Amino acid sequence: MSNQEQLNEIRPYRAIHRRKSRQIFVGNVAIGGDSPISVQSMTNTPTIDVQATIRQVNECAELGAELMRISVPDKESAEALKQIIPHCLVPIIADIHFHYRRAIEAAEAGAKCLRINPGNIGSDEKVREVVKAAKDYGCAIRIGVNAGSLEADLLNKYRTPTPEALVESAQRHIRILEDNDFFNLKISVKASDVFLAVAGYRALAQVCDYPLHIGITEAGSLAAGTVKSAIGLGTLLWEGIGDTMRVSLSADPKEEVKVAYQILKSLGLRHRGVNLISCPSCARQAFDVVKTVEEVERRVAHIKKPLTISILGCVVNGLGEAAHTQIGITGGGGGRHNVYMNGKPDHKVTSEELVDHIVTLIEEEAKKNGA
User: Are the beta carbons of 112 and 92 closer than 8 angstroms?
Assistant: First the structure.
């Protein structure tokens, strides 16, 4: 039994029961079923800038992105994919909107998933050609419904984007693919409004068993978008809805990956990297907590193995937190601070040595655990 399963057994209020969905593969990444909730992001470089796009994909992959999406707005971008994909560490999803030829070219270039709404790309014949390319080249398809680009007849019917409109649009596109004998698909019903997105995903989860890609689209800046995404995606994940996710921020794509993992770690759904428990600091702090945490977090960002560390400025809550972490620091008097290892008092460290000492302990603990 894993640590998380033991924790769920001891503390049943922590258990999250995921919606049962069928499993598909995007390249070598399993989506749905009992596979982990995968994290993805999207490049914001011009796709024709091959080196910049490769660099951005792989920087995100190093931080834990398991899938990356690249926009393919024109033929030049489709040609660039041929040079990009062989150098990427993770499977690539090609973002296609209206031109069916771009989807075919992306599949031929090696994309492992096509983000496309089949109802938007024209005739039945064009849809059949895209489906054939997806089958021939082993591509999945993501149906990407968005409140900002619903079909005109649905807007006329519902007067405004509603959960019902999002789900009806998704079902319409699903039927098109199923009628073409294609089932290797996942679906999203995104909106920038948290309430609309959550309601849409809840309704969709009731009417199909395809894997769901969850996201709050156009969430905003790093701070505002993080809060919005944490509320919306956190709600869905807590309810067991979601098989793969993207946090959409007006920021460096690497930040999207970091925030996604923080959301998953907060819910106990993924355990990757250092989980820092730290106090907001107050007049009782015996060292500069804010600067210490910022510096430690920056210097241990490369650690992939899950470790939980507590850094608290005084003993009020510090002892309790240290009892449940692998490494715990609590502020002490005279510039000497208490270090706890696996919940037990171990030694002291001075303020001057504090950051370097914490980083060394974390790196040593990670090595011990095979990081």
Answer: yes
Q: Name the nearest CA neighbour of 217 among 187, 172, 174, 247.
A: 247
Sign of CA dihedral 252, 253, 254, 260: positive
DSSP string covering 43-68, please? --S-TT-HHHHHHHHHHHHHTT-SEE
Residues 254 and 60: their CA atoms lie apart, in Å, by 5
Q: What is the pLDDT of residues 277-329, one digit of tens each?
A: 999 999 999 999 999 999 999 999 889 889 999 999 998 887 888 888 999 99
> Which domains does the chain carry?
23-266 (3.20.20.20), 274-368 (3.30.413.10)
Residues 6+ apart with CB under 8 A from 298: none
pLDDT, tens digit (0-9, with 9 covering 90-100), for 149-175: 888 999 999 999 999 999 999 999 999
> What are the beta bridge partners of residue 115?
95, 142
pLDDT per residue as tens digits for the range 200-223: 999 999 999 999 999 999 999 999
Pairing of strands 24-26, 29-31: antiparallel
> Which residues is 349 bridged to in the sheet?
337
Instruction: List Cβ neighbours of 360 (8 Å cut-off, separation of 6 or more).
Output: none
CA dist list (Å): 227 to 232, 248, 265, 347: 9, 11, 15, 38
Within the chain, how many helices (H) and strands (E) appear?
A: 13, 15
Find, among 313, 365, 309, 367, the residue nearest to 337 by Cα: 313
* Assessment of whether the complete model's pTM goes beyond 0.85: yes
How many Å apart are CA 328 and CA 347, to the nearest integer? 11
CA distances from 9 to 1, 126, 164, 303 (A): 10, 52, 37, 28
Distance between CA atoms of residues 101 and 127, nearest Å = 10
